[in-house]
Amino acid sequence: MAQDKKKVVVIGSGPGGSGVAALLQARGYQVTLLDRNEFYGGKCWSFTRDGYVVDSGVHMFSMGVSGQFGDINRMVRGDLEWLTANPSEHLLLDGKYRLNLYQSLTDPRAMFSNLRTNMQIAKDMIAEKAGRGGLSKELDREVYRAAKKNSPLETLRAVAKIALLNPSYLVELDEITLQEFLHRITDEWLPLQGLAALSMLLTVVPYSEVSAGEYLWCFANAFRKQTLGVPRGGSREIPGAFLRAFQRDGGELRLGSEVARINIRDGKARGVFTTGGEQIDADIVISNAGIKRTLEMAGEEHFPADYVSYVKKLKYSCSFITTKYGLDRRVVDLPAPGFFNVPAVDPDHMFDYIEEGGVPEDPFLFTPFPSEWDPYAAPSGKQLIICGVPGPIEVTKDNVAQCERILDRAEERLLEIFPQMANHIEWKMRTHIAHTAAITGKPTGECIGLAQCVGQTGVHKPTPWTPVKDLWLVGTDAGARGVGTEQAGGSAIYVANLLS
Ligand SMILES: Cc1cc2nc3c(=O)[nH]c(=O)nc-3n(C[C@H](O)[C@H](O)[C@H](O)COP(=O)(O)OP(=O)(O)OC[C@H]3O[C@@H](n4cnc5c(N)ncnc54)[C@H](O)[C@@H]3O)c2cc1C
């Protein structure tokens, strides 16, 4: 009977909030979902401009249909559809080597299509080593370095454990950085540049900070599932599909409804107060607003002091800032619908410019071509290109100015690589930290949420349950592993399972 249903209020309609709302509504709860924006989806949102479907950020989804979103969609009987491609990425390495990345690392097509580049890389490496004082000297050094590192057998064992996603091994690797882990295997710049860039792509944390366990979980899963892709209709279709199922099942969605305060009585969450002064009662409150904002809304006085100080010390990921280009015709033709410029710089210092307030000499460019994934992302015959580059997060005057300079440099580099774009730009627009912060209502514009750095992943990750009874967290800050939106999806499944 309807009056017996437990009432749930979910604060925020990001992928985590919309996912958990749909799952709980489907499982017999009576859910009200509130979002401060007039649109749904949080940072996973897209909008229409002149017939283009434009991502508010710059998204690709590492596991697509086989990941957490595929699972939620099946559980709520949603209508989410996925698009994949093979090869999925085209890489420019060291400013000169072009490589196609396939969904599977062992795809035989990769061997053929990259044969010439791989031979060139090997040839250049040998020539470089010979130039640096002869192969034998270099070999001596390699042997010396290898003696201090993993033996080849240890390395092979490590690779096998990673491929099998051995949980105990990942827990162990949560305690060291990816940089530390990789330097046990190699000091060669080229592979390290690729992996440092990939760390920024998968976690938006420099590889000198990211937890090796978290990164390898994301990396191994992406290649194991082989369904990296995008949803048909743009990134908004992920929360969109969940919310259509949610409303079909009787859930109540209220957009433009901001929560000012979480109502805590006798140590229990009992509902929320909106900024409009409305009181909404509930048996359970689930917050998708991020762990720090949730504490503010509930009032620190309701939590143990050590929890408050733990939460205050948690660090955020870096940002991704973007320029979107609507082109009047399809001028860039690549083998894959996504392009990366992997910086030709010292991998250990690739992203130092972010903290230093500087501009990258050779920027890492994460450049999906949405209209190559999905022709409906641009009007017929036209092309949409979105170029993302990592940046700082605090929304200050200096950081906003730094973002503009980074985006200037990113555009310069993009047009060096694809000069044919220059005369066909119908419109372009930038989004940076101030735009991201305006979506979430925070003073920071981090890309992901909490940083997946050493000390904040695996057993160190905040749990979805809080010390306040019936107050839960969902989203990237709560409980799960994975790439960006997908860990928010994993968190939604985790919370729904714990509650039902
Ligand atoms: C530029 C950019 C590029 C990205 N690229 C990728 C990518 O390629 N792949 C990927 O997987 N991820 C990517 N991400 C990250 C991804 O978008 C986020 O990690 C994900 O959206 C976080 O999901 P979430 O559910 O935790 O919360 P969010 O998406 O942050 O949503 C939180 C919601 O809570 C609402 N809210 C907050 N406070 C209140 C309140 N008081 N009352 C009511 N509502 C409130 C907000 O309005 C918002 O809708 C990118 C993000 C950005 C910005």
Secondary structure elements and pairings:
Layout: E1 7-11, H1 15-26, E2 30-35, E3 46-49, E4 52-55, H2 68-75, E5 82-84, E6 89-93, E7 97-101, H3 108-113, H4 115-131, H5 135-148, H6 152-163, H7 167-173, H8 178-183, H9 189-203, H10 212-225, E8 229-231, H11 237-248, E9 252-255, E10 259-265, E11 268-274, E12 279-281, E13 284-287, H12 291-298, H13 305-313, E14 319-327, E15 338-342, H14 352-356, E16 365-368, H15 370-373, E17 383-391, H16 397-417, E18 425-431, H17 433-440, E19 471-473, H18 484-499
Bound molecules: flavin-adenine dinucleotide.
Flavin-adenine dinucleotide binds at residues 11-17, 34-37, 42-44, 57-61, 258-259, 288-289, 293, 320, 322, 388, 436, 440-441, 447-449, 475-476, 483-486, 488.
* Helix content bin: 25-40%
Tell me the β content.
15-25%
Strand order of the largest sheet: 9-2-1-13-19
Largest sheet: 5 strands, parallel
Which CATH-level-2 architecture of the largest domain?
3-Layer(bba) Sandwich
Structure report:
The protein has 500 residues and is of the alpha/beta class. The protein has 4 domains: 164 residues, 3-Layer(bba) Sandwich (FAD/NAD(P)-binding domain), CATH 3.50.50.60; 34 residues; 75 residues, Guanine Nucleotide Dissociation Inhibitor, domain 1; 123 residues, Guanine Nucleotide Dissociation Inhibitor, domain 2 (2-Layer Sandwich). Helices cover 39% and strands 19% of the residues. It has 18 helices and 19 strands. A 5-stranded parallel beta sheet has the order 9-2-1-13-19, covered by helices on one side. A 4-stranded mixed beta sheet has the order 7-6-15-16. Strand 1, helix 1 and strand 2 form a beta-alpha-beta unit. Helix 1 runs parallel beside helix 11 and helix 1 runs parallel beside helix 18. It starts with 6 loop residues before the first strand and ends with a helix. The relative contact order is 0.19. The mean pLDDT is 93. The site of flavin-adenine dinucleotide has 40 residues, from helix 1, strand 2, strand 14, helix 17 and helix 18.
